[in-house]
Description:
Blueprint: H1 8-60, H2 67-98, E1 107-110, H3 111-128, E2 132-136, E3 142-145, H4 147-163, E4 170-177, E5 181-187, H5 209-215, H6 221-231, E6 235-241, E7 245-252
Parallel strand pairs: 2-4
Antiparallel strand pairs: 1-3, 4-5, 5-7, 6-7
The chain binds adenosine-5'-diphosphate.
Adenosine-5'-diphosphate binds next to helix 4 and helix 6.
Main location: membrane
EC number: 2.7.13.3
GO cellular component, one term: plasma membrane
Amino acid sequence: DFTVDLPAASRDELGELSAAIQLLADDLHRLQTSRREFLASISHELRTPLTYIKGYSDIVSKNHINDEEREQYIDIIKEETEKLSKLIKDLLDLAKLDQHEFSIQLDEVPLMTMLERVAGKVRPAFQKKQLELVITGSGDIKAVVDPVRLEQVLLNLLDNARKYSHQGGKVKISVVKEDKVHLFIKDEGIGIPKEDLPYIFERLFRVDKSRNREMGGTGLGLSIVKELIEAQGGKINVQSDLQKGTTFELILEGEL
Ligand code: ADP
């Protein structure tokens, strides 16, 4: 029977050390589990559109369907192909972000000009849902950003604002300069439950899987948005009221 007689202080330290090791082991276990879950989810997300594409192209190549049906099935094939390519693009972005292979080129960019250009890109999709898109802010505000990456962020946030808005609603972009530059994207859509707010920037998190399946979401968009904004030295916040709407705020540097 062998015991080491340690002074009380180092017994405490040993206790702390073993607790710390236990925490690390728990972290590692969680990480491995989440990696596995991530892969399982992604495989599912990749397989679902492929199943549709394969199934409908088999049907389309048969002769016994009429033109109307053929057109309808081709539309589905196009939509599913679109989903698949967005998912693959998101995954490639995440991989690059993880490996720090994202080059960020910071520049002082006039925000209003950029917002008008981005708004021009999303307008057709907004019109389809009769959504009003309003931009306010002073024309001379600049922000220190990578214009390509900021555009990607804005397109993503606006696409969400459109997806989760009710037909005929309003989306407002506003820019305010204080110490920093604050850019708000506010919608009057379905909102996000309070208990889900802390998780929406996590990879693959979706508020409600059923509402997202039909919207074509993957739960990757906001995690990419957050990483891109932080890579530019910015911050992102969210505020939301269920059934009333959601506001995302970007906080950016105003000067180099
Ligand atoms: P997705 O591709 O599923 O939209 P995101 O990462 O972009 O994934 O968003 C994560 C979740 O946050 C979404 O599933 C959605 O439920 C919620 N969400 C994001 N933006 C909004 C918004 N403007 N209004 C309501 N819910 C939103």
